[in-house]
Design goal:
By secondary structure, the protein is an alpha/beta fold. It has 2 domains: 193 residues, 2-enoyl-CoA Hydratase, Chain A, domain 1 (Alpha-Beta Complex), CATH 3.90.226.10; 34 residues, no CATH class. Helices cover 38% and strands 17% of the residues. It is built from 11 helices and 8 strands. Strands 1, 2, 3, 4, 5, 6, 7 and 8 form an 8-stranded mixed sheet that branches. Helix 3 links the parallel strand 3 and strand 4. Helix 3 runs parallel beside helix 5.
C-alpha cells in the first residue's frame, strides 16, 4: 500500500526541454526514436527500460519525474511505425498491471497509427490480447497522464488510453498531434477515390483534399474545442513541466468502486 521511495531531484522540475521542439520530423510519415523524447523529459535523462528486445514497437520502463517514480508506456515510431500488435499488447498490459500493483503512476506517450492489420495478427488473437491492455487500463487506479505526441488513430487511441472512459486523468496534445479513425491520406483515398480519378488534375486535388481534412479533422486545436477529455495543447518543450505538475496534483488520488467479486479478464 505504500508509495515508491522519493529521491530529492537534482534536475529542475520546471526545466524546459527545448530540444523537443525540433526533435520530431515535419513529415508525419518519417520515423524518429521515442527514447530520445523520453530522455529529454525524465529526471537527469535516466530511463530504465524493461523488456528492451521484446516487442520493440512499444517501450515500457521506469524513470523519475520531480524525484517520484513513474512507469512510462510509449509507442516506438521507428519500429513498425509504433503500431500495436499481439506481443506489444502483452508487454504493455503486464507492465501497466505491475505499476498499478505497486502504486507507480503511469505516463503514456502516444504516437501510433493503430493496431497492425494482417492475417498473422488476426490468427494470433489480436482482439483477445489487445483486450488485455484495455482491461489493464480500465482497472488501474494509479495516477495516469497521457501526451499525444503525433498520431493517435483508430483503435490505437483506445489501446493507449486517450479516449473518454479509459480512466486517464489528464490528456495533453502537442500542436502536431493528429487524431481520428484513420490518417488523412487513407481517409481521402477511401472516400474520394472516384472523385480524384475523374479529376483533370488528380494529384493536385488529392493534396488539396488531404490538407482540408487535416485542417478540419486532424487539427488538435479543433479537436480540443469539441473533445473535453483533452485538457490542453502544450508546446513540446513544456512536456516535462506539465507532467510533473499534473502528477503532483494527482498525488494521493483515491478511486472508490462499488463492491464486486471481480471483472471478466480476457483470457
Amino acid at each position: 500500500m505504500e508509495d515508491p521511495p522519493f529521491v530529492h531531484p537534482t534536475d529542475d522540475p520546471l526545466r524546459m526541454a527545448e530540444e523537443l521542439d525540433t526533435l520530431i520530423p515535419d513529415d508525419p510519415s518519417k520515423p524518429y526514436n521515442m527514447k530520445d523524447v523520453i530522455y529529454h523529459i525524465v529526471d537527469d535523462g535516466q530511463f530504465f527500460e524493461i523488456h528492451e528486445n521484446y516487442a520493440q514497437n512499444i517501450i515500457v520502463g521506469f524513470a523519475r519525474l520531480g524525484g517520484h517514480s513513474v512507469g512510462i508506456v510509449a509507442n516506438q515510431p521507428s519500429v513498425r511505425a509504433g503500431s500495436l500488435t499481439v506481443n506489444s499488447s502483452n508487454k504493455q498490459a503486464r507492465f501497466i498491471r505491475f505499476c498499478d500493483a505497486f502504486n507507480i503512476p503511469i505516463v503514456l506517450l502516444v504516437d501510433t497509427p493503430a493496431y497492425m492489420p494482417g492475417l498473422d495478427q488476426e490468427h494470433g488473437g489480436i482482439i483477445t490480447h489487445g483486450a488485455k491492455v484495455l482491461y489493464a487500463l480500465s482497472e488501474a487506479t494509479v495516477p495516469r497522464v497521457a501526451v499525444m505526441i503525433r498520431k493517435a488513430y483508430g483503435g490505437g487511441s483506445l489501446g493507449m488510453g486517450v479516449v473518454p472512459g479509459m480512466g486517464t486523468d489528464f490528456i495533453f496534445a502537442w500542436p502536431i498531434a493528429e487524431t481520428g479513425v484513420m490518417g488523412a491520406e487513407q481517409t481521402v483515398d477511401l472516400f474520394y477515390a472516384d472523385k480524384i480519378a475523374k479529376s483533370e488534375k488528380p494529384q493536385q486535388l488529392r493534396e488539396q483534399l488531404i490538407k482540408e481534412y487535416i485542417d478540419r479533422y486532424a487539427n488538435p486545436f479543433a479537436e480540443v474545442s469539441i473533445r473535453t477529455h483533452i485538457k490542453d495543447i502544450i508546446e513540446p518543450r513544456e512536456t516535462r513541466r506539465q507532467l510533473i505538475k499534473s502528477l503532483e496534483l494527482l498525488r494521493g488520488k483515491k478511486v472508490i468502486r462499488y463492491p464486486k467479486k471481480h471483472g471478466n479478464i480476457p483470457l
